[in-house]
Amino acid sequence: xxxxxxxxxxxxxxxxxxxxxxxxxxxxxxxxxxxxxxxxxxxxxxxxxxxxxxxxxxxxxxxxxxxxxxxxxxxxxxxxxxxxxxxxxxxxxxxxxxxxxxxxxxxxxxxxxxxxxxxxxxxxxxxxxxxxxxxxxxxxxxxxxxxxxxxxxxxxxxxxxxxxxxxxxxxxxx
Length: 174
Prior knowledge:
Layout: H1 2-19, H2 23-65, H3 72-81, E1 85-89, H4 92-95, E2 110-114, H5 118-143, H6 148-173
Helix pairs in contact: 1-2, 2-3, 5-6
């Protein structure tokens, strides 16, 4: 990360130097440095979210390798320890629509929720969107040599796929 952060800083410094000689080059360098900084931030967020998952899996594997076993309570404790779950005190007003069977809970009972992983969710949405876009790109080639009516249907499927890819990205960004 230090080298990337340094590269971002140097990029912005060079952009400032070039600003007086030509705005286009300066802007390009600045934009590239900014994009690099954004990618570094995304990578760090992904790493942070996945660190707990990695340590959780390592802990389960360690139990198995030692010949042990883990029941639901043990797994739940490990998930809490590694930051994959968060515990709250149940409140009917707050949690009634968030649990499977609210009748089994009384106010004050412990209730557990999966920790949000927005960086991972956004990354996976981007991967899915790229796959859908690849499909959409293939529809154009597939339409070649077909009747006009069939080709139009295939192209419409491709356009709908592109809209769906945009929707995936939008949902991943929320």
